Known about the structure:
By secondary structure, the protein is mainly α. It has 9 helices and no strands. It has helices spanning 2-13, 16-31, 35-54, 56-59, 73-102, 107-135, 139-154, 159-167, 172-196.
Amino acid sequence: MKGLLMMDWLTIKKMKQMLLIFVFLCLLYLVLDIGVFMVAFIPIVLTSIWISVSLSEYSSGNTQFLFTLPFDRKTFVTEKYLFCIGSPLVLLMILSGIYLALKLDQGKDLLYLMGGTAAGILLLASLMVPLTIKYRKNAQNYRSIVMVIFILIFAGGGQWLSGLVEKIAPYLVWFAAIPFIALGFSWWISLKLITREEF
């Protein structure tokens, strides 16, 4: 699994122009005093990009040699979820820390926003990973539809999302289980799909 993680990370590192664009956007959001939008929006968008990049070799159809490498399909699927979810969650914490350092009085709202965004990352990956495995090259159309829906949800600068999380706070334990249940089911579906493939 370590080799797969390194391969995905090196692929992302090559996308320097895209990473610089996102750094510029973060700085712009901070200058314009819309850091909340940065915290909610950037990790969600990067989750979609990470999934597309991480599964690009599989979705391109160049899989006849992929599984001759020393890992099984379960390890492959698990690594994709770890990478495509773990990286945006780390970024979410970094961006939240930066925003909190500038807006010390926004701690409570930021906590709600982080929870909502983290749930969004899990749900987005739960939808996009099996779609990409199932439809391969044609998955881009489905990913675009899912991404538009998520952008509409998170494009309100995070205020709507943090307000929603605050309202359901008394029942948060129950609602918090939904993304994890969806993620577990998604992982199972993805594993079934990739196990049925013959290369």
